[in-house]
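Notes, Module 5: Reading structure tokens.

Key idea: the token line is not a picture. It is a compressed description, and you learn to read it the same way you learned to read a sequence, by spotting repeated patterns. We will look at two proteins. The first is printed below with its tokens.
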Amino acid sequence: TQFPCLRLILVGGERILGRDILLAKNRFPTTVFSHFYSLTESSVNTFAIIDHSRRVESVTLGEPVPGVEILLLDEEGEEVDEYQEGEIFIVCNHVAAGYWKNPGATSGAFLYDEDMGRIYRTGDLGKLNLDGSIEFTGRKDHQVKIRGFRVELTEIEQLLQSHDSVNETVVNSFDPGDGETRLCAY
């Protein structure tokens, strides 16, 4: 290897696939490979150390770091049962106060509870696994991530509809099986 002293690789911002782990294992067999689930609005939330010896299709978001609580809630704001999908809420002292000069977006995403403190509604969906880790299952809205960038599908639809020759549009994301999210407009 070109980096014989490399001890730790930290990744985050995108879903980690089994092929990513295999690549890291082959290139850096003695290196610890770790995954962070982190959002701009709430800093580092979860942390997973990936076991090179296990074959996995994708990597979970890991477990909450100390001082962070993860809630999985249904549409009514109730905690979902184990292994059921719910929206991911982050509870910690590191949650931002809100969005700069955007009270509408702030009121929809940032909550405060007298007992728990600041809470951030991520829009991400997940479920709790048997081992205590959280599995990312998708988004609640029409936002997707492509190569680390947030993409709002409705914004693309609006732009396409602004063309005189276009009456209706639908933009969707898909993964053709190679782990690379692509967009398709109809």
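Here is the second protein, with the sequence above and the tokens below, as before.
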Amino acid sequence: MNALIFLVLFPLCIAGLALVVPPVLNVRRIIGVTANIVLCVVPVYLLIKYLDTGPVFFRLESPWISPLMLATEIAIALYIIYVSLRAKRTLPALLVLVQSVVMVIFEVTSGHGMHVEHSLFVDKFSIIMALIVGIIGSAICLYSIGYMPEYHHHYPEVKDRRRYFGFLLYLFLSAMFGIVFSNNLMWVYFFWEITTLCSFLLIGYRDDKASRDSAFKALVMNLVGGVAFAAGLVYLYHSAHTMELDKMIRLEKSY
């Protein structure tokens, strides 16, 4: 279980470093290479350890996890509403409002007494996905360290926010690992929300009209999926009385 938690938290720590470390190319490259090696090695370790064991489930309990996730989801929703209304785009604000109201009502009512036995898991497919995220995702982050100075050299009119860009990339990786290893569908939803926000901010990095339009188009598509995701979670819980992916699969096979 420690390796799974590490793969979620380690990119988050690198994201924090990317935000505070000065944009000195050699320093950032050292950090990027180190992160790249670690994010490639740990999934390989999981491959060696769990390839022939079948699905393995882990219990992770803390009274702070669910309230912290809910607070983060609300903060993301409020930010999206703010930037949408500021840009005079009502559709994304409306979508995220509907999505948030559905989830808050669910968590306060039915979800409040929800018991999840196993929040994390690892199996062959999740290991394959972790290898893809770790190897390809970290390689993209490493490439961007050398690419971004060249980009800003060719486009001097674009505000240089390389720290912010690196932070978003590694935050995205952290959320992707969270999606891959979550057996709790509420956790999957939480990490989905983080990827939605990161995608929106990364696409709009240039902060011109074309990039803002593209960012809001992507945001609307993700929010439509988010509304469907939220409604699906409510329906699944009231139908199957669980939020654990493995138990839902077993229930489906029993019919």
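Summary for the second protein:
- Residues 136 and 157 are 30 Å apart (CA to CA).
- The longest strand covers residues 56-58.
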